[in-house]
Amino acid sequence: MSPWRLIYITGNGHSGSTLLDMLIGSHSECITLGEIHQLTLKAKGVCACGAANYKECEFWRDVDSRLQVDGLSGLSALHVDSADPEEFRRSNHALFRVLQEKTNVRWFVDSSKKLPRLKNLLSDPSLDVVPIHIVRRPEGVICSNMAKGRGFYSSLRSYYSGLWARYKYLRGKQSIVVSYEQLCSRPEYVLTQVMKRLGLTFEAAQLDWSSHDHHNVNGNKRTRTSRQSSIRLDERWRRNLSVWQRLLVKLASVKFRLWLLLRYGAKAY
Ligand SMILES: [Zn+2]
After folding, report:
1. How far is the CA of 50 from the centre of ligand 1 (A)?
2. Whether the Cβ atoms of residue 226 and residue 132 lie closer than 8 Å to each other
3. Per-residue pLDDT for 223 more than 90?
């Protein structure tokens, strides 16, 4: 049996992972699943198609029925993010098997973002996983976090701890790094490079991502349910962060780069 192919988008929250997920998932040979680890946990989460939750979505209801035909108890019995390796494997395999049979696509896109899930998926020989690390400049992520009520210092700390953890883990592995700023400024160029790495050819229709039928769950709700395929570089931080906050972010950035240089030398970049 050939392995299931999975594109796994990882990165800090508010880095544009949902947009990237939709853009890749709009390719004719890909399908976006969204933050699939949350599928059955947040039964009230809106599906990208507009259904109030996965139980009311035609796509996921069909997946549910197919699982039951396979002798399983359906989606609600799957624990795709289980800490138990056997359960993790059983649930994810059951889901991928049904999704492959239903959609017959070459690649699934999982934008769960979490590193532990990526580690579990990469250790499974039945899966061909390509990690994509999406990186947004710190000011943008911090500003979005602050808009959600988080403090400046904790947002700054979590940005660099998240970046460091992903950098360290993915270093030396086959992975793709995507800059959020570049993706928004030159989407066609960035997507052409990404699709080439996946053995696919960029399709212009990918840019009109909202016109495609998607059933990805969780992630940025506004992007997932938008009916306009706008790719807008969000730089509200230029207005909303104070000069002092920007200076602190700059200093943290220099410190991080120096730390990489000391640890890995010139090969750090
Ligand atoms: Zn749906």
Report:
1. 6
2. no
3. no
Q: Are 131 and 118 in contact (CB under 8 A)?
A: yes
Rounded to the nearest angstrom, the distance between the alpha carbon of 59 and the centre of ligand 1 is: 6
Residue 43 has pLDDT above 80, yes or no: no
Strand segments, DSSP code E, in the chain are 4-10, 30-34, 107-113, 127-135, 176-179
Taking the centre of ligand 1 as the mean of its atom positions, its distance from the CA of residue 211, in whole angstroms, is 14
Q: pLDDT over 90 for what percent of the chain?
A: 73
Overall average pLDDT of the 206-230 stretch: 82
CA dihedral (232, 53, 107, 8) positive or negative? positive
Mean pLDDT of 11-36: 94
Helices (H) and strands (E) in the chain, counts: 11, 5
Residue 132 Cα to ligand 1 midpoint, Å, equals: 24
Hey, what domains does the chain have and what are their CATH numbers? 4-264 (3.40.50)
Contact residues for 82 (Cβ-Cβ < 8 A; gap 6+): 88, 91
Q: Which two tokens stand for residue 86?
A: 């056997």
